[in-house]
Amino acid sequence: MEKASKIFRDLLQSNEMHSCTFSAPREKTNVIKSIHAKSVSNLNELKVEFRHQKHNDIKTILKSEFITKDLPKLLQAYKQLLIKSDSIEYQVLFNKKLVGKIIEKKSDIAHVSKGNRTKNYLIPDNIPCPFLIEIGVMEPSGKVKPNFYKKFKQINRFLELVDNLYTKHDGSPQHIIDFGCGKSYLTFAIYHYFKNVLKTQVKITGIDIKEEVIDHCNQLASKLNFSHLNFVHGQIHNFQTDQPIDFVITLHACDIATDDAILFSLKNNATQMMFVPCCQHELNQQLHNENSSAMLKHGILKDRLTAIITDSMRAQLLEIADYKVQCMEFIDLEHTAKNILLRCSKRNSQPVMNKEDNINKYLQFKNEWSINPYLEQKMKSLNYFSI
């Protein structure tokens, strides 16, 4: 334990530590499942996130106080410690006698810092971007913080996917809805893209069920003078507007919440949609296929198969509704297993001539897996098409 403590203190005091994570509590009664600490622009402080089962508490703590008061307790309370610096990553595993096994490897932060920075991003590194500075991804100088480089790449990857949709944009104002916006990193990024990259008038509304998140995002939008970026508290199926909608985004909405976002888009005749679905529970209990029983009997395989079938179902139904649908990788699997993005564009030409053929293919697919999806039933009841 003393060696692990020394490594931690030395890296922290020399300002080389980017982050650390204490996990696997020794006592089952410990309500804090893990603790994540990272360096901030103030070199004397740490931003510490206490991760409970259903919520997180975030505090700013002086480094000196963390070392003297918190570190000794945490080393005894948790079985695992991960420390990341610019060049080395330490994983410490403590046994019952509090003896630590220390595993060293080259840090992926150093790899990311040296590689990939020459890419021509829509939001470049080393040029100050006000919203990235405010959300803590960039230093005021414009340099991306090493421990936020993955988030920086994710934001730019998302903007690339949006940019592909708007390569021939005519400059008309855009009204965008972002359901389940959460902390809204990508919502702010989209506003920045339309306002500062495309130089287009844009109005964006972010919707989420967490009131404290909505309040924070509205305060940040006001501070940045993003005058047409607004956040409201609510749920997808309850949200209504009498204004035309151009673009609907939903990232990691659980189960049929993605379907509700699709239905909202269809009702409002949205031109573009982008969805990254999550937690496809609805069809999990419905799936039945005698020819695939070997896969369906294993829970983990069934879960993954359900996700693929659910997204395939959505893509087929949207094609029937005259949208061009592309299924693609959003970010690398190493970051999240929920990485399939559906990018949908309303067809500008006349409805496709093979609509009946698409319906028959969907019916065959539906019968093959014995499913009766919520999205199909809602689309039929609203007369978007008949099956």
Name of the CATH superfamily of the largest domain:
Vaccinia Virus protein VP39
Q: Considering DSSP H and I runs of 4 or more, what fraction of the residues is helical?
A: 25-40%
The CATH topology assignment of the largest domain is Rossmann fold
Tell me the major beta sheet. Answer: 7 strands, antiparallel
Describe this structure in words.
The protein has 387 residues and is of the alpha/beta class. The chain has helices at 2-13, 63-77, 108-114, 130-134, 149-165, 185-197, 211-223, 257-267, 293-296, 299-320, 355-369, 374-381, and strands spanning 17-25, 32-39, 45-52, 56-62, 78-85, 88-94, 100-106, 174-179, 202-208, 229-233, 247-254, 272-278, 323-329, 340-346. It has a seven-stranded antiparallel β-sheet. A seven-stranded mixed β-sheet has the order 10-9-8-11-12-14-13, with helices on both faces.
Descriptive terms for the model:
Rossmann fold; globular; seven-stranded antiparallel beta sheet; alpha/beta; 37% helix
Concise synopsis of the structure shown:
With 387 residues, the protein is α/β, with parallel strands linked by helices. 37% of the residues lie in helices and 26% in strands. The protein is built from 12 helices and 14 strands.
